[in-house]
Amino acid sequence: MELTEAQYRHIKPCLLTPRGNVTLDNLQMLNAMLYVAEQGCQWRGLPRRFGNWHTIYTRMNRWAKSGVLDRVFAQLQQAQIIRIKIETVALDSTLVKVHPDGTGALKKTARKPSDDPAADGPPKFIWLPRLLERF
Asked: Distance from the CA of 8 to the CA of which of 68, 87, 97, 132 falls in 20 to 30 A?
């Protein structure tokens, strides 16, 4: 899914004018973003023909925070150039906490020392203090 020059003219007013020394124009940026959305690949997996993936990701992030992407996709759908619905779902271990019993971990059993220390066997850990040499 790539936009042509004719399709790009419909949404050009929604986009910001690039500042500074910019190597990628807005059409290339949009085509790269559409490629990632369509293929579901990581940004690092973006083909070289689109340009540096980090530059594209940084500009896309800025556009998303400033609301430019919302206006662009609304205009693309209003002009019936593309029909997509973007939804985001993010799940990872920081969002969903699972009790240790839910992960299949073995339950801890309480250690019950017997009255006779010899029946427990030798101690598992012995700490011996060491004296440091003085200079």
From this structure: 87
